[in-house]
Amino acid sequence: MGKIETSFMNKKMNKVKELSLKQKQSFYHDGFIILKKVISEELIQTALNRIKKAEKGEDLGGEKEMTDLVNASPLTPILHEAMGYFDPPVHCQVGVMKKTKPGDHFNSVGYRDKDMPYYGAQIHMDGSQTIAAPQEVQKGTEDEIYYKYIASGPKGDLGRSPEVMGHNMVPLFQDPEMTLGLGSFTAFVFVCLNDQMQEGMGQTSVLKGAHHEMEKFFRWQYETNGCLGPEGPGWPRINYKSPNHCGLFYIPESVQKKFVDETSESTPDGKKWARPTQVLMEAGDACITMYHIPHSGSRNENGIESRKNIIFRLRNKKRQPKKLVNGVSDHPDRGQMGEWLEYEKGNDPWERSKYAMCNMWDEWEGMQEIVAEEKIETSR
């Protein structure tokens, strides 16, 4: 038995089934909370064994061994109390990241992987379309670069349309009127299956506290013209000044700049990047984050094995009581592959989601008292 497994087995599972007052206060301020040893040894080992037995290319996202990490663990009662009811996930993202060295390729924000600080983190909001980054410097006008880029997705050249899909199978826009450039949900939850206690082991990074700024930004967008997300006010989709002239603005630049300080590192062009917090966890730990908190995976340079996180995206049932959220989709107002869903008369899913994006605590039912108290405290 390996050192990591032995260490894990010698520690007891945390059987707490709700967040403490102190944890809720921390969650309010930071936008994420790490729950130590909340997942049992049995569930962790069962998931690891299933990953080990997987055939090449096999999708394990719908396997019970993975979904049980929420459905059969204390995470369900903890989330029921803090957030409210949600569909038990039937699918998840199996985040196995092999050990890698910095690469020479252009990443999605238009910079070479080796030039990005913080182990290649590309801080983003979930629900945003991503098409494979051009690996050659793009030429032409901004419009020419834009239309060439969106035409390079899996469905080909459809012009600027909500039918355009990314390689991550997220639509360019969520709604027919193209006023909503992001999919959304309530909670982003990931369960750690192996040691990630040292930086640079492929762990998730978060922009601590930025959920407050994203909510403010969404409200400003909505008040300006009702359009939220990329291509709404103050948030162009493409950074034409990036090294490949076609990088994505994964979060608004105005938000990113608010988190730049003296510790921030730069790319060779002199651009400073906000330093994210690497979420350091070990097997059996889980992290609950707000949808609103910008985050990213990072390069696994220092790990002794592949990084293994199992990722869930959950939505409070009250937003759309009649729609099933599968646990992996970051755009549940549309089908997993971008299909249009039917909604009853009077149910505008885009407006409901815009409301949730502008009022981030509305779907956290067990946080209401804390939120009210903290808002009073910060207003003094």
Q: What does the model show?
A:
There is one protein chain. The chain is an alpha+beta fold. It has one domain: Jelly Rolls (Sandwich), CATH 2.60.120. Helix content is 27%, strand content 11%. It has helices spanning 3-9, 21-30, 41-53, 64-71, 75-82, 117-120, 142-150, 210-225, 253-258, 349-358, 368-379; strands at 32-35, 93-97, 187-192, 205-206, 238-239, 247-248, 265-266, 272-273, 277-278, 286-290, 295-296, 307-314. Helix 3 (41-53) packs antiparallel against helix 4 (64-71). It is globular. Residues 1-11 have low confidence and may be disordered.
What's a concise summary of this model?
The protein is of the alpha+beta class and 380 residues long.
Summary keywords:
12 strands, 11 helices, 380 residues, disordered N terminus, Jelly Rolls, globular, 5-stranded antiparallel sheet, alpha+beta, 3-stranded antiparallel sheet
Sheet with the most strands?
Answer: 5 strands, antiparallel
Residue runs with pLDDT of under 50 for 5 or more positions: 1-11
| CATH architecture descriptor text | Sandwich
Reading side by side through the largest sheet, how are the strands ordered?
A: 1-10-3-12-2
Shape designation: globular
Given this structure, which CATH class is correct?
Mainly Beta
Would you tell me the overall average pLDDT? 95
Q: Which structural class is indicated by helix and strand composition?
A: alpha+beta
Distance between the termini: 55 Å
Could you estimate the helical fraction of the residues in percent?
Answer: 25-40%
**What's the gyration radius in Å?**
20 Å
Please state roughly what percent of the residues sit in beta strands, choosing from under 5%, 5-15%, 15-25%, 25-35%, 35-45% or over 45%.
Answer: 5-15%
